Amino acid sequence: xxxxxxxxxxxxxxxxxxxxxxxxxxxxxxxxxxxxxxxxxxxxxxxxxxxxxxxxxxxxxxxxxxxxxxxxxxxxxxxxxxxxxxxxxxxxxxxxxxxxxxxxxxxxxxxxxxxxxxxxxxxxxxxxxxxxxxxxxxxxxxxxxxxxxxxxxx
Length: 154
What we know:
Oligomer: single chain
Shape: globular
Helix content: over 70%
């Protein structure tokens, strides 16, 4: 019996979706077109601007950015999996963009820039690592928000 089979089905599904998203970033590095990369760069700039003024718009653009990465991997099943995950996580991610300090979202140190650099270099390992870091960074606040909702934030 593997370790993940002992997890509740919702945790296994989430783990699968996250792994799929990370691996799709690696595959996107190998398959991305210059037009797709230019679109991602445009979305990131729009995200940076919106993050400073309109958290709801920033959340929508962030979704577009992540879906464009998955689309570049050309894996329709993974796209559908991530779409389902985003449906569940969307409200928390919107809260994330409303709560995280603007400087963290608008700086050149945002995790999306590492991903863009890896994609431009066709660096699958770098794209995988950058997506993992972006997800981990967001998970810190999502965990905090869940504790806050439960009344245990500290």
